[in-house]
Amino acid sequence: MKHFAAVRILATVVLSVIGAAWLQGAPNRASEDVEADIKRTLDSQVASWNRGDIAGFMEGYVRDDSLRFASGGSIRRGWQEAFQRYQTAYPTREKMGTLKFSDLEFFPLSADYTEVFGKYHLSRDKSVGDASGLFTLLMKLEGDRWLVLHDHTSAAE
Q: How deeply is 103 buried, as exposed, middle or buried, from its count of CB atoms within 10 A (0-12, 13-18, 19+)?
């Protein structure tokens, strides 16, 4: 009997390990939903930007003082400060150009937070010149929308 009980315990452990390994490799439906929801936020930002609508672009950010935007060696805190930075840095359609995000990578951290890494490219008039670089976003689920809580953007040289 002792031998049978030991075999059952061993079999249970082995099956649990195999099952956990299988689940780890299985597609995560919740993760796919999260990615699609975050892409909707980012696509909406791109569409707003490409219309010249900075206020609409900012709808993708958490609208309070917890927002942190880091770029060019400086940190801005709060939605209003980030909004003013965009208005100052991109006062005309020529400076705004046409925005494109690419090579997005998603790293779920919890049910309410996901890190997003990607590239941006601004196609602009030759007199202004194109701009591109990398970004890392900490996205936060607020209600039924994913919004940017922290944005760290760096320009390519």
A: exposed
| β-pair partners for 101 | 120
**Which H helix or E strand runs over 152?**
strand 145-155
Confidence at 1, pLDDT banded by 50, 70, 90: low
Provide the greatest CA pair distance for the chain. 85
Given a cut of 50, whether residue 13 has pLDDT beyond it is no
Going by C-alpha positions, the residue among 111, 110, 131 that lies closest to residue 120 is 131
H, E, C per residue of 51-93? CCCHHHHHHHECCCCCCEEEECCEEEECHHHHHHHHHHHCCCH
Output the pTM of the full model.
0.79
Pair 65, 82: CB distance under 8 Å: no
